[in-house]
Amino acid sequence: MKQAETDIKEAQTPEELAEVQRIRRQVFVHEQQMPDIMEKDRHDDFAIQLLAYDEDRPVGTLRLRWLDPKTAKIERVAVLPELRGTGIGRSMLESVEAYAKRKGAEHLVLSAQLHARPFYEKLGYHTEGKPYEEMGVKHIWMNKKLA
Ligand code: COA
């Protein structure tokens, strides 16, 4: 399968943050029929937002927020459907992991949609506990200890 030429950047300008919301809206609200809160919520004012680019086009996003000085949570991981399976999700996770490590994180945690569990497992995340329902979708808690 084609591997995308992925460039990962922090979204900071109003235009870049609008792209983050546009991708979330397309993936979570329209495709997955999740509530509008997936597009923007109160945590967005404090979280680090990443954008992945295919050439010059923003095609993927995620955010990172700190739960405590050693624990960061990854949320809102989304890649546009036509670019899935080309390594963009992996690049974003690797990039945010390196960033979190530089900033002192010892653990990364996330609440994975159950269908995405194998994706996170490939990247070294382990499940914790049993699946639960959130916003009508089955999720499972996952974590990764950073060396
Ligand atoms: N099931 C099993 N394996 C998967 C997978 C899935 N759903 N999604 C990706 N993988 C595997 C890939 O095959 C690849 O394996 P390889 O390295 O052995 O080739 C590896 O995980 C990395 O895949 P990648 O191409 O980087 O993933 P992606 O760019 O398609 O992103 C998601 C994965 C989950 C972010 C993407 O499918 C997505 O945006 N889904 C919709 C939104 C969503 O559900 N987000 C997760 C919220 S918790």
TrEMBL record:
Keyword tags: Acyltransferase, Transferase
Entry keyword annotation includes Transferase: yes
UniProt xrefs under CDD domains: NAT_SF
Domain N-acetyltransferase: 6-147
This protein's record includes keyword Transferase: yes
Any matching Pfam family: Acetyltransf_10
Top-level taxon of origin: Bacteria
InterPro entries on file: Acyl_CoA_acyltransferase (IPR016181), Bact_Acetyltransf (IPR050832), GNAT_dom (IPR000182)
Descriptive protein name: GNAT family N-acetyltransferase
